[in-house]
Each structure stands twice: as structure tokens, then as C-alpha cells.
Amino acid sequence: LIQIDGSELWWFEDRGPQCxxxxxxxxxxxxxMQLKFVESESAFDYFNATREYLEAHGKPVAFYSDKHSVFRxxxxxxxxxxxxxxxxxxxxxxxxxIICANSSQAKGRVxxxxxxxxxxxxxxxxxxxxxxxxxxxRCLPAFLADYNKRFAKPAYNPKDLHRPLTGSDNLDEAFAxxxxxxxxxxxxxxYDKVVFLLEPSEIAFDARRKxxxxxxxxxxxxxxxxxxVELAYSTFDKLRSVTHAAVVDNKRLGAALEFIRxxxxxxxxxxxxxxxPRRRGQLNHIFKVG
Length: 290
Known about the structure:
The chain is α+β, with helices and mostly antiparallel strands. The chain has eight helices and twelve strands.
């Protein structure tokens, strides 16, 4: 059982930005299994940190967390209506349980670790004059080893219950954000304020008026699948300006561009969706089709 939690703090004091430390603690021994500085306690940050954990240690029996929205459903429109979050779905795919504590006292080991880290780690970062997340993460392996030497307790049963990763454990697919969208008659769909235009094909025509899955990877890649088949597409970013030439140049974009122009006529500018994950490295351009 591995307790996980995030601690938001001015870890660099006045030398750098406020950030969050993701902490993974062995429930049996209080041993720090993983530390990672991130900008915020987001789903994609937990995706990346948990992937690193699994690659280093294997799969634990279960993760034990608080009721943060990354771990626990707070609305009825959860992934596929199954009552699980994106992170919960990823763990389910990998056959790892997620347990949410009813109180902070229930996950006492990670809470006690927070208190120690907020004292000792802040001082260590100060001594090394660390002021960025990248530099702080480079300091963590040495700090973690010293911490465990001082505070970790021997396990009653020394057997390691982590399960090794196998060929069937596809971490790329597991740790990706998934949402379903309906394809229009004109082979378009919308995701995160971007209009996606499917390339005409037999499988694309079959997807009209049906649900497809948008898969948003942490590294910026994005795929659209229908019945397990990836669909070719181009994109049109609704937050960019729309010119008359763009409308005339590509008649297939007509319906999408009309919707976009109506949005641009509103007084308030459109904003990127806050519900979708923070997308890294994704470039949204206007692509001509055909």
C-alpha cells in the first residue's frame, strides 16, 4: 500500500515560484518511494509521476490518497459514466487499486512526511540555492536516500509485493486523457476549443453521428479513435482569428468557421477550457483539407 499526496508550498521561499511536491510513501515502513516537484497537483502531473514510480518500482497492490478531484469523482459526468476519474481509469487499466481516505488522519504517514519535508527539504534547497523546479528535482535522489536512511523503518515482512510491469502494461495508453465526442455530419468534432476535421474515409463516414474517443497524451500527441481505428484529421483553433480568405479557401470548413465567427463576435474573448488537461507542446494551426 503506497500513500500518495501533494504538498503545495513556497518550497524555494522567495527565490522561485510556489509549486507542489508529489510524495509517495510506503505505508508499512514510512519509506519515501518517490518525490517529484511539479507546477500543480494536476491529473497529467500525477500521470507522469506515477509512470516514473511504476517504471522504478513496479505495480503496488494499491495507492491510498485523499479525496482530491484527481482521485475521486465530484460530478456525475465522470469518465464513461462509470464513476471513476481519469487517474482511476488509468490505474484500473493497469490493475492497481485506488483507495480514498475519509480524513487526513487516516493517511498519517504521508501527512507526517509532509511536515518533515517542509522543514528539512526547504532548508536543503536553501543551502543549495535552488530556485527552479528542474533544479529541485535533480536534488531529490540524494535527499530521498538520506531521508530513508534516517526515518524509514524495517518492514515486518521484507517481501516486496510490487508486481513487475509486463508487455501487456501499456503505460502510454494508460496515462492518457480520454474524452468522448460526437462526430457531426460534416465530419467535425470539438475538443478543448479546437475544431477537428476528420479526413474523409470509410471509417470516418461510419463515425458520423456516433461517439469517438479523443486521446490526449501528456507529451502533446493527440489521436481520435473509432472502433479502435485511428482517424486522420486536421485542426482549426477557434481561439485564432478567422479571415474571409480562410472561409472562401476551404468550403469544407464552412460549418465550423461559421460557428467560430459567431463566437468571435461576442464581447468576451473565448478562453481555453479549464476542464480539459493542460496540454503541453501541442500546436494548433489551420490546415487546408483537400
